[in-house]
Write a structure and sequence with these properties.
The protein is an all-alpha fold and about 120 residues long. Helices cover about 50% and strands about 0% of the residues. It has one domain.
Length: about 120
């Protein structure tokens, strides 16, 4: 969306330093709450795959845009059955007591993916 701001996209990108050090061990993933999808029961795997596919669809729709068309977002959420997926996600539970996978599900149900 070039031309939306006084500076071009290339100029803005050139302003950012490229050699910023990471001050945290792993800035993007809390390793203690990560798991392979194959560690989850098959029924939960299906829901998690659907969640990620839906998020990728939404991301692809609005990638490279500086402003989101709220009407289009609402339409996309309806097309992807977002509210049904969120209801299904909130009702996920493990039948076995596995604290590690329980934390992963907790993060999926109410973590940054929800935002």
């Amino acid at each position: 969306m070039s031309g939306a701001f006084p500076l071009s996209d290339e100029t803005v990108k050139a302003l950012a330093p490229c050699n910023l050090p990471f001050l945290r061990h792993d800035p993007f993933t809390r390793s203690r709450s990560s798991a392979s999808i194959h560690e989850l029961p098959e029924t939960i795997q299906r829901t998690v795959r659907e969640l990620y596919q839906t998020l990728l669809t939404i991301f692809a729709e609005f990638d490279q845009q500086r402003q989101i068309d709220l009407h289009r977002l609402q339409q996309l959420l309806q097309e992807t059955h977002w509210h049904d997926l969120m209801h299904e996600l909130r009702n996920l539970s493990l039948h076995q007591a596995d604290a590690h996978l329980g934390q992963v599900l907790h993060d999926l149900r109410g973590g940054s993916l929800q935002a």
